[in-house]
Specification:
The protein is α+β, with helices and mostly antiparallel strands and 548 residues long. Among the domains are: 263-325, no CATH class; 454-540, no CATH class. The protein is flat. 43% of the residues lie in helices and 16% in strands. The chain contains 16 helices and 19 strands.
Length: 548
């Protein structure tokens, strides 16, 4: 939408007050940030339990309770799979080589030295849950060179916007105060307006300019629309009530731990020798026992004292002192309840839950991976659209000859996710070997294990995947190769282990098939085959030395 100056002023006049829709978005953002990021957690979420909790108790609970960022950390962990999946297609259709380089450079160094994909991964993934009504806004700098880059504009910085699907016709930001005036910024599909309001008067600022995007450079963060309330909602909307209960119960457990989580020391007391147990001496309080009538420690706050029982037939306890243990059963019950809420939240969002690993280092596995894949597909759809829109907007800015309505990017995130942890995937691979699975299945399972293990180390991941495609008889041990294919092939398998250490750098410049040929040549040069080894035909099948 291309606004005239008069229309721009009318937009500002119509938004002198924040709309109910934006207010709802801000309230939602505050609550979500408190839950997910721990911002103002105590003020937003730790509230007095009416008719049950005293003022002193709620004060203590606010002081000692902690945020539940760990709760949402566990809930969000599978999302990383959309950024490490395989099968991605990205094609930028720009024939001019200099323009293509300019575009690729813009995407690889998009914000703070990070690529656009990294920006999406580090910023959007969190904002999608905490600020669904905020926007990703593309800023523009024309000197010394044209630069366009994505920024986050939170709902608290936005006075209003006119939606057009997930895009915007215009965005009006919160005004800044300059003396007795308000300075408004309004951006439509053609103009970046700066308008100063003084009382009832409006004036166009010289900072107003025509931007190069061809459309309003804003994308609403969330694609989940609550039609009844006319507002975007978080992907965690169904989890929020559970998270609030979890936060309350955890704060109660924390306070219980402080109040009742320590053992209490007790002992029998002896009569004060100075006052003979009266607590008084010379008409004054006894200084030796502070008027208690019995000898005591200097600090009695950590001690329960019992008078020595007297009378016929009364026996002392076998110990003259001891400890009263805290009520661990109640403590354990709190812990069980928190674990239950954690599981319910996970199942609510992902449609399944994870089993625990068999040891301290092993990660659990999903009972059913299909609901997880379905949810990840929704995340991938959302991230994919945001990234695609940013690419097109940046292209409109940095490529002046590009038609504004013409799309130059084809982007499809991969949908082949590595959901389970490396321990589980290694077990799947090992079990498949034991049951005699074919090479194709073993190759797939091994690649999934490697991908999961080195997911956070792209360079090592690429190296290990290349190695798996080059190593002869990948799925067999040396002794197995010897028993089936003979000594020559076994020597080849053994030789590769040392050869790869010295030649792995080849993976940076050559394809797997080229590296195989180099290895074969090196091996035959070092180990000429003197006699045909008939055992290579053992088992009645030709050797598949590469295993893939």
């Amino acid at each position: 939408m291309n606004l005239t100056y008069e229309e721009a002023v009318q937009v500002i006049k119509a938004n002198q007050q924040v709309s109910s829709r934006i207010l709802k978005g801000r309230e939602m953002n505050r609550e979500l940030c408190a839950l997910i990021d721990g911002e103002a957690f105590h003020e937003e979420l730790v509230n007095q339990i009416e008719h049950i909790e005293s003022d002193q108790k709620i004060k203590a609970r606010k002081k000692y309770s902690r945020s539940i960022v760990d709760f949402f950390g566990r809930l969000m962990s599978p999302i990383e799979n959309i950024f490490s999946s395989s099968g991605e297609v990205q094609d930028i259709k720009i024939e001019n080589e200099s323009n293509l380089k300019l575009m690729l450079d813009s995407l690889s160094n998009c914000r703070d030295g990070k690529s656009l994909r990294r920006f999406i991964q580090e910023y959007w993934a969190n904002l999608y849950h905490t600020d669904p009504n905020g926007i990703i806004f593309i800023e523009y700098v024309s000197t010394p060179t044209v630069v366009a880059y994505p920024t986050y504009k939170g709902i608290n910085t936005i006075r209003n916007y006119k939606e057009k699907g997930q895009s915007c016709d215009w965005v009006l930001f919160e005004p800044t105060v300059s003396g007795s005036s308000l300075v408004w910024r309004l951006v439509d599909s053609q103009t970046d307006w700066t308008i100063t309001q003084t009382g009832e008067g409006y004036a166009l600022s010289e900072n107003t300019f025509t931007h190069p995007f061809g459309q309003c450079p804003a994308v609403i963060i969330s694609d989940i629309l609550d039609i009844k309330r006319n507002i975007r909602i978080s992907a965690f909307a169904k989890v929020v009530p559970i998270a609030k209960e979890y936060a309350r119960d955890q704060s109660i457990k924390t306070l219980y731990k402080f109040l009742h989580g320590f053992p209490t020391h007790w002992r029998y007391v002896t009569q004060c020798r100075s006052c003979a147990g009266t607590g008084r001496k010379d008409a004054n309080s006894c200084k030796e026992c502070d008027g208690h009538g019995y000898m005591k420690k200097k600090d009695v706050t950590d001690l329960v004292t019992l008078p020595i029982p007297t009378g016929e037939g009364v026996k002392l306890a076998p110990d003259i002192a001891g400890f009263i243990s805290p009520d661990l059963a109640t403590w354990d019950k709190y812990t069980e309840e928190l674990e239950l809420l954690d599981r319910i939240a996970f199942e609510t969002h992902w449609g399944t839950h994870q089993t625990k690993g068999t040891n301290e280092t092993a990660t659990g596995r999903f009972i059913d991976v299909q609901p997880v894949k379905n949810r990840l597909n929704k995340y991938a759809d959302s991230a994919e659209y945001i990234e695609w829109r940013i690419i097109e907007l940046i292209a409109n800015a940095v490529l002046p000859t590009k038609p504004k309505t013409e799309n130059i990017c084809l982007l499809n995130y991969g949908r082949r996710y590595i959901i389970e942890g490396p321990d589980t995937l290694l077990k799947n691979y090992t079990d498949a070997k034991l049951t005699g699975a074919n090479i194709t299945v073993l190759d797939k399972l091994f690649a999934e294990f490697i991908t999961s293990k080195y997911m956070n180390d792209p360079d090592w991941l690429r190296l290990e995947l290349t190695k798996s495609k080059v190593e002869p008889y990948l799925h067999l041990a040396i002794v197995e190769v010897f028993n089936v294919f003979g000594v020559y092939e076994a020597k080849k398998k053994a030789y590769f282990q040392t050869w790869w250490v010295d030649n792995k750098e080849l993976s940076y410049t050559k394809q797997a098939n080229e590296i195989r040929a180099i290895f074969e040549l090196d091996f035959t040069t070092q180990n000429p085959k003197e006699d045909e080894d008939s055992s290579s035909e053992a088992g009645g099948f030709p050797p598949n030395k590469w295993g893939n």
